[in-house]
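P.,

For your records, the input lines for the assembly:
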Amino acid sequence: MTALLEARGVTKSFAGVRAVDDASLVVADRSITALIGPNGAGKSTLFNCISGFLRPDAGHIDLGGKRIDRSPPHRIVRAGLARTFQTARALTRMTVLDNVRLAAPGHPGERLDSLVLRRGAVRLREREVTEQALDLLRLVRLDTHADSLSGTLSGGQRKLLDLARILMASPRMILLDEPMAGVNPALREELLAHVLELRATRGITFLIVEHDLGFVMQASDRVVVMNEGRVLMEGTPDEVRGDERVIDAYLGTHA
Amino acid sequence: MSVLSSGEFWAFVGVMAGIYTLFTLGLQVQFGLAGLLNFGQVGFMAIGAYTMAILVVKQGWSMWLATPLAVVVAAAAGVLVGLPTLRLRGDYFAIVTIAFSEIVRWVATNEDRLTGGSQGTINLSGEGVATQYNGAWERFQGWVGDELHIGSKDVVMLIIVWTVALLLLWLTARLARTPWGRVLRAIREDEDATASLGKPVFRYRLQALALGAAFAGLAGCFYAWQFSFFGPDDFQPLITFFGWMILILGGVGRVWAVPVGAAIFGFLFAATRFFDFPPFSYLDSADRAYVRLMVIGLAIVLLVVFRPQGILGRREEMVLE
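Structure tokens returned:
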């Protein structure tokens, strides 16, 4: 297994408090890795460092051998790593279709110069992008809503829209931030199936922050446990399940 | 009341509405599309007007070269203001822009040798030499009038301003529907989500600010031609807020709402000038000038209460979260 994402010694403090403290983790290519830990363990901060929304105070983060921890978020997406947020961030006053089309990479129609000089290329690409976006909406069964404003979608539908939108960016790796939060059992199964399917058919690597341990055990190959800003342990789901340190961290029983 | 029935007067109102349309179109690109709170739009208008006038008078440039360059300089000013400030939060950016427009006004007031100082462009060539920058414009206006067989200069101006305004409205409406416009609308809604989809938010904001500043610069040139001379006091912060009133009246986010807002604003602003019946007639004319602003303010308050999306805005967009 080759490493796709490698974080070494990542540290991030806020006003003197070390939210992430010398954390290191490796995510293997085409793996589904879960990042778990109690609230305040530093999972979200580490996520924000990896996706470029925060700059780590120290440490290295490499994606496919290239350093990304000095890059802004949009460069990291172009390098192949995309993320979702804890609450689905639908652009509510745009149509569902436009939400997905927006994420298309390398669109000449998003540049003022090519809008004037390469009108043929712009039209062609927009047609491709629209086809691709409709395919993705069919995948998550939102195609019948394509022309509705995304603000009319339910919370669960917005999670699916988030997924379709992020796939439009053709990432090699996806960071999911608590995908199961506020999700009903039927949608839970649907999202789980999508994650497994996307790894199998498109070879997408996943790093998932999740509190739903049932989902973590079902979906992931590797589990990384964080506590108080540090990586406590990592292993297979079975190894993690039986580890006393993990039980301690979650239950706070210092036996 | 005879003025109210005069065609000349209403042509003048129409010309001003056209200039305000160009001015506010810039705000529509910046705020309606990209969500930028620019409270200093009048600064870009001043830069456009002064650049054109200075190039014509001091450098002896042709108006036909000076005007495009003035628009480019206004856009460049947008880039200069945006580079250090667009990474700030929206409300901080708004404060910086209002400071910028005041700086422009004070520089124009104090740099006599460059701008003619507080006396305005009449002093561009120094004290005592009355200076005009609009000779070429007058000839052009005369030529258009002859071709169209229209004697009134105001009506000719009305036609020219609105031809340009309609052309730019049409282009901007088209631009808003392109993938470029789609990215701007996304940024207005949620910049982090847009960045997380691979879009360089900062660069788009800078483009929107510069494009909107260019529209203001062009509005400044038309303003300069309409009045034959101007000074720093023509670029008070109030002008920016007139633009915002027009934007809110018409509807945020919709390009064709701008001329509607500008026409209504122009009408209210002109019509309230003739409030010479009781109770307004008990006030002297200076106080009545404030009554005009109060009436327009009241109209906006009523609009926000009963039709918050503006006259042409879409209601459903106001309620979605």
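Two observations worth noting. Chain A has a mean pLDDT of 91. The first helix of chain A runs from residue 43 to 50.

Regards
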